[in-house]
Structure formats: structure tokens, C-alpha cells
Specification:
Elements (H helix, E strand, L loop, with lengths): L8 H9 L6 H9 L3 H22 L10 H24 L4 H21 L5 H21 L7 H21 L9 H20 L9
Helix pairs in contact: 1-3, 1-8, 2-3, 2-8, 3-4, 4-5, 4-6, 5-6, 7-8
């Protein structure tokens, strides 16, 4: 984690901690739609990111008895879960037992990847790609695409691309100790999630 000079910590509080508020509308939206599994994951994502970045801004702080490194690992797992949830959401499983089994399997795979090396980005990407492949394979076998609201999915995609750009640029935290780019990742990722959850419409009949 980069060292943040004392005179910059107030600004860093906004760029890394308060930008997590972009998840609040996502949490309420998922709860209103009765997507309670999503709500739980989004709430945990909010707090784990909050605690991780608090430990960055306030040097040597232990939040709930855990270091920034420990919170980083949990935060990354929750971020992976967000991508996995959205992939399964658009995969549109009718059989929730099958969806639940796949979700648990993807979670366990994510935990193994993070245990392998939580600071290497490749081990964050691999379990996300695995979830996307599940979605692509399922929809390909059924020869259909998810039925979506074009305007909302366009906004979700646009904000998602911007979020990924800032995430990638923000990996160079030595030249961005205020984590401005990472804060923008928080903001646009929250916007992307919000529109993605609003975009799926009634799907065509299918078997699984």
C-alpha cells in the first residue's frame, strides 16, 4: 500500500473511502428487487472496501482487529463476487439450485485464487473470467441472448469500461498515492452495477 503524507489524508479519505458510497444506490436497488443474495454481497463489498481504504489512509490502523493487507484480500474476494453475480444474473438460470451450486463453486475458486496470490492481478481476473465463461457457455448452448433494456445496458457497459480503465491506471499507486484513479474506479463501478441490475427484462422460456 502506498504511503499517504499526513497533509494529504483528508483528500485521500474522499478519494478512497467516501467514493464507496456509489454502492449505496446499488444496495437499495437490489433489495427493492428482492435480490437478497446480491444485497448481502454488495453490503459486504461496501464495508470491506471501506475498512481496507481506512487502513490505507490512517497508517498502521487495525480495523476490527485486522490489518489493511487482510482487509485487502477480503475486499478483492467481494469485488470478484460482484462480477460473478452479474455474470450469473445475465446467464438467467431458472433453476436456482443449479445457479446456487455454480455460485458457491465460483466463490470457492475465487478463494483458492486469492490464497494463491492476493496481490497479483491475474488471480483476480481468472475467477472473473470463469464466471463470464459460465454465462457465455450457457447462453450459447441455449442459442439465445439475455433480453435487456438497450438504453440501460448501454449505460452499464459504458460506465463499466470507464471503471475498468481507472482500475487499470490505478494499479500504479506509486504515482497516484492519493488513489484518485482508484476512487474513480469505485464511482464508475457503482454506476455500472446500478444500471446493469436495472437492465434485464423478462426472458424467453428456456429449460435450465
Amino acid at each position: 500500500m502506498p504511503y499517504i503524507p499526513p497533509e494529504d489524508r483528508l483528500l485521500a479519505t474522499f478519494t478512497t473511502v467516501l467514493t464507496n458510497l456509489s454502492l449505496v444506490p446499488v444496495i437499495f436497488s437490489s433489495f427493492r428487487q428482492k435480490k437478497y443474495v446480491h444485497s448481502v454481497i454488495f453490503v459486504f463489498t461496501f464495508f470491506t472496501s471501506l475498512f481496507y481504504h481506512m487502513s490505507e489512509v490512517i497508517v498502521s490502523t487495525h480495523v476490527l482487529g485486522m490489518t489493511g493487507g487482510q482487509w485487502h484480500r477480503i475486499d478483492t474476494v467481494c469485488s470478484i463476487l460482484n462480477f460473478q453475480l452479474i455474470s450469473l444474473y445475465f446467464a438467467d438460470f431458472k433453476d436456482k439450485n443449479i445457479e446456487g451450486a455454480i455460485r458457491w463453486g465460483l466463490l470457492l475458486f475465487a478463494l483458492i485464487c486469492q490464497e494463491k496470490s492476493p496481490w497479483e492481478v491475474i488471480y483476480t481476473i481468472i475467477p472473473i473470467v470463469a464466471a463470464v465463461l459460465v454465462m457465455v457457455i450457457k447462453l450459447s448452448l441455449e442459442r439465445r441472448a439475455p433480453v435487456v433494456n438497450t438504453r440501460r445496458i448501454t449505460w452499464a457497459g459504458l460506465f463499466g469500461v470507464i471503471a475498468l480503465y481507472f482500475f487499470a491506471v490505478g494499479l500504479d499507486d506509486k504515482n497516484d498515492w492519493l488513489r484518485l484513479n482508484h476512487g474513480m474506479w469505485h464511482t464508475f463501478a457503482g454506476l455500472s452495477l446500478f444500471f446493469a441490475l436495472q437492465s434485464k427484462e423478462t426472458s424467453r422460456p428456456h429449460a435450465v
